[in-house]
Amino acid sequence: MDSYGKEIIIDLVDCKSDTFTRGSIKGYCIKLCELIDMDRCDLHFWDYRGYPEEYEEAPDHLKGTSAVQFIKTSNITIHTLDVLKSVFLNVFSCKDFDSNTVIEFSEGWFGGTCLDSHLVQRGKV
Prior knowledge:
With 125 residues, the chain is α+β, with helices and mostly antiparallel strands. The protein has three helices and six strands; from the N terminus they run βαβαβββαβ.
């Protein structure tokens, strides 16, 4: 690799919103890390769990679950949008990985279609 690392940015649409639970997202992180040979570290979530009034008042683009799966070589971030049935993913690592595997696995897991993706070489040397 002739860069510090790479990042794949993926927008999925027409997803199955029943996959947007903390349990499903945790399973996604576990399996994805196995597929692309990454060592998982801490997993953190943010959603409106326990905040029913704020959730109801939140605009649609905020209603969902966000997660950060730290990996030894950086992180995976996930943002789901329930009403829009969309998932926004970023996988960044200084260890090489197959970006096509990430796209195909993500489409299958969330039952959606990749609307757009960008592969970025970070810190190109």
